[in-house]
Specification:
The chain has two domains: about 325 residues, no CATH class; about 130 residues, STAS domain (Transcription Regulator spoIIAA, 2-Layer Sandwich). The protein has about 550 residues and is mainly alpha-helical. Helix content is about 60%, strand content about 5%. It starts with 12 loop residues before the first helix and ends in a 7-residue tail after the last helix.
């Protein structure tokens, strides 16, 4: 079993501690912003950086992935819990805690039953569309904050956009100025001096300016008082009906976090050559989320941007996460008065710049160039998430994933093979339409399992090949089964119908290169009654034509 803080040595200790300070500077302002997106107090974002972060860092197999609430998770919390309680209320906070606990239980179940593969149903187009829809919804709220315009943060996208447009007359010029300068510093700093924690820099500078110039008296909104003290152990007290109402949104959070978290964890483990254990990582997400729900926070996932920042800083262990937890605790104990005067426009600017990559503009352009159907899948998921809601968005995502799978499986590569002329060589070349593999013989290869979505397509292709060869030209049909890894009942029925069709035309049917598992399946489905099995090369043809000896 991997020891905690694997990879930490005396040689990299200084680097890891420095990276931890950088992570602290990045995470504090972002988590305050994400808590506001979720409709929760700033402490909910800060509490997530203490106990959940420590537990995750000590359990996870990844040496680099940083656990934290992110923008997409915060938006999901707001859109799902907002339909059950008013944002800012005690009931709202309790529901967010319960949702995190349900997520934690689901992660643990995924780990115990090794079901992490389910997240593979969330393909890149689906994730791009789903997260992009959430990101645009977030952007509207952050733009309103940057302009000093009040909107209904818990409303639907159209309602928030309408409030923003109609409220432009109340725009605060000081808020706009703070936001423009902050965004400029963040974007320019990201290009030229990436190692500098620019989010912290603009946060401190904006706060100093607001306090010194008294801009809070001129309409610039500030964060306000943040309660001091460490997080306390709690538990959401809800009836079973309310717990059940949170399950769909918890499923959405769990699946999105699983897909993104495992992808990030795997990519960094491959990049730096250390072990990756998917089920252990899922277990880490599980215990971290239960801890978040039990001490006043909300759902925790993986932070791609912070993980990338730590990788760039040279970190290869979870020590920076522990530094983050200690630093956040000290801030809550002794420095919350420093947070009260943080201007809301700068928080909006920090979160807005962080959210821009989540819009998926570059990814949508790449999808458009690569595959229009996958672009359409991403676009539909984006629009449903944006205009209907996050839960319908994730449901549509799974439906689209199944449609995409069925579409591709329903049109497998089906080839009539051409003999190379050498008895010792495999049959590799696709034959032109109307030809046969050898005199009187057609060998057909399908590069997919035979099941309900493509059974009719396969039988039609074989019939077309026989018909195209001409009446009486084909005496034997051999199905190359190397790529057919499974057959379902519907596919078997299609195969049986093909056998009857061939028998009516006095054409024999045989199989070559049958896998052991597939052969057992053929026998169970009674598809091997009298049909011959042939070896893995051209002997299948020479046996049928009688020009060379039989191959067993």
């Amino acid at each position: 079993m991997q020891r905690p803080l694997a990879g930490l040595t005396t040689k990299n200790l200084a680097t890891e501690l420095t990276a931890g300070v950088t992570l602290l500077a990045i995470a504090i302002p972002l988590n305050i912003g994400y808590a506001q997106i979720a409709g929760l107090p700033p402490t909910a974002g800060l509490y997530a950086l203490i106990v959940p972060t420590i537990i995750y860092a000590l359990v996870v197999s990844s040496r680099q992935v940083v656990a934290s609430p992110d923008a997409a998770a915060a938006a999901l919390v707001a859109s799902s819990v907002g339909g059950l309680a008013a944002a800012g209320s005690a009931d709202y906070a309790t529901l967010a805690l319960a949702q995190a606990i349900i997520c934690g239980i689901m992660f643990i179940l995924l780990a115990v039953f090794k079901l992490g593969f389910l997240a593979n149903f969330l393909s890149k187009p689906i994730l791009v569309g789903f997260v992009g829809g959430l990101a645009l919804d977030i952007m509207v709220s952050q733009v309103a904050k940057m302009l000093g315009v009040k909107i209904e943060s818990g409303g639907e996208f159209i309602e928030k956009l309408t409030d923003l447009v109609t409220g432009l007359g109340t725009l605060n010029s000081w808020s706009l100025l703070i936001s423009v300068v902050s965004v400029a510093i963040l974007l320019v700093g990201r290009v030229y001096l990436r190692a500098v924690p620019w989010a912290l820099v603009v946060l401190v500078l904006a706060t100093v300016v607001v306090v010194a110039a008294g801009l809070d008296q001129k309409g610039v909104a500030v964060l306000g008082e943040v309660p001091a003290g460490a997080p306390a152990l709690t538990w959401p007290m809800l009836d079973w009906v309310t717990w059940a109402a949170l399950i769909p949104s918890a499923i959405a959070l769990t699946m999105v976090t699983t897909a993104e978290g495992l992808l990030v964890s795997r990519s960094y483990s491959e990049k730096h050559g250390y072990p990756f254990r998917a089920n252990r990582d899922l277990m880490a997400f599980g215990v971290a989320n239960i801890a978040a729900g039990a001490q006043g926070s909300f759902s925790v996932g993986s932070s791609t941007s912070r993980t990338a920042a730590m990788d760039q800083a040279g970190s290869r262990t979870q020590l920076p996460s522990l530094v983050l937890a200690v630093g956040t605790l000290l801030l809550l104990l002794f420095g919350t008065e420093l947070l009260a005067d943080i201007p809301s426009p700068v928080i909006g600017a920090i979160v807005g710049v962080a959210v821009i990559p989540l819009l998926g503009i570059r990814e949508f352009i790449e999808l458009w160039k690569a595959d229009r159907f996958e672009f359409l899948i991403g676009a539909i998921c984006f629009l449903v998430t944006l205009f209907v809601g996050s839960i319908p968005g994730i449901l549509v995502a799974f439906v689209l994933a199944l449609i995409n799978i069925a579409k591709r499986a329903a049109n497998p590569a089906i080839d009539v093979l051409e003999s190379s002329g050498d008895p010792g060589e495999s049959l590799l070349e696709d034959a032109p339409e109307g030809t046969v593999t050898a005199p009187g013989v057609i060998v057909v290869r399908m590069a997919a399992p035979l099941f309900f979505a493509n059974g009719a397509v396969f039988t039609t292709a074989v019939k077309d090949a026989v018909t195209a060869a001409g009446d009486g030209e084909v005496k034997h049909v051999v199905v190359d089964m190397e790529a057919v890894t499974d057959i379902d009942v519907t596919g078997a029925e299609s195969f049986a119908a093909l056998k009857t069709w061939l028998a009516d035309r006095h054409i024999t049917l045989g199989f070559s290169r049958v896998r052991a598992k597939t052969r057992n399946r053929l026998e169970k489905l009674e598809l091997l009654s009298g049909e011959k099995l042939y070896a893995t090369n051209r002997a299948a043809i020479v046996d049928l034509t009688g020009t060379e000896k039989k191959d067993s």
